[in-house]
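Shipment paperwork, digital attachment
Item: protein structure file
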Amino acid sequence: MQLDAFQFQSENDPPLAAKMRPKTLADFYGQQKIRPALEKLVSHPRHVIFWGPPGTGKTTLAHILAGQIDRELHVFSAVTSGIPELKRLIAEMLDRKREFGKESILFIDEIHRFNKSQQDALLPYLENGDFLFIGATTEYPHTSLNKALISRVSLIELKQLEVQDLEEILKRGLIDLGREELGEFIPDLAKLSNGDARFSLNQLSRLAAFNQSELAHKEQVLKDLFEHARQYDRNANRHYDVISAFIKSIRGSDPDAALLYLAIMLDGGEDPEFIARRLMILASEDIGLANSQGLQVTTNAHYVVSKIGMPEARITLSHATVFLALSPKSNSAYMGINEALSFVQENTTLEVPGILSNVSPEKKNYKYAHSYPNHWVDQQYLPHGIDQKFYRPGSQGSEKALADQHSAITKSKR
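Attachment content:
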């Protein structure tokens, strides 16, 4: 059964999530850890940015604070409007303050959508206290917002709501709908709503549109409601969290976990070429010389993925993922280049030894390695006065043979 979210509602009937929005902190469910900070905002108002996943109460808190401290709330969307609209709204707020003495709150939703110059436009007003500022963002503020803006506000993080909090919210929604007979669905709705109160109430509204014969098939109803409801934002925290878990699972040699996170990314619409590129990086960073075939496998996988696309690309990505997860591990190449770069950056210009130079008269003293037994001869390759070691061989997989070769060469040196 396919239904629009609110097809059963009358044209003038607001969405259930809007009707159920609490008016006071006492009616606000969840976020127990930040309750003291929220109560302090009521007693001592200050500029604040709420950040956290969708449906955790950021916008609701702005409305609650405005009501409890008796200030006009002016809502502005950073998604649909820019600097000219913002300046007009601020001018209207300041006019009302001068004419009526009415203090205002400027609430900017999705504040991270503002670029640096747009965020900077707020700074003088915040500095002067011309109005109270409340921002909301789903992004990590220290990477999505200017330091200058962050320094002028308090940051309060909201977490996904607990299942028991969502159950209480949904029970109130049932009462408002007059559909208490749907109570058996509450635990499933709460569990499958990803801690998002607004989403859970929207799904409850959709549930109320099913007829009695359809409701008798509970599993099918839940499938219809949540078939496409899994959260995955390719440009937000979920994206970074899942790819991080994917890489760390492969590094930790757990193919089951790695395949699960791969499935989450593919189900969420992640770019398969992005995944293939990350596998190529991992092949050198974490598998490295312990199994150099890893780089070949992932390079081939990237080529295949770029040529065939989804859904068949999932098989190639799975192939490469399991191969890397079960390969012996070494980060010696990764650590070696990092140490070498640090050494170069911490020192003045390093001179190439004359025997290795292309122009120095000393180049005539260079010894051609292939002219000597075992294609090796002892001579100075590092710059004079430097005896730094950057490569520290591992002992896993095929790197063991390289480590033995390295050890033999080291012992042969004077």
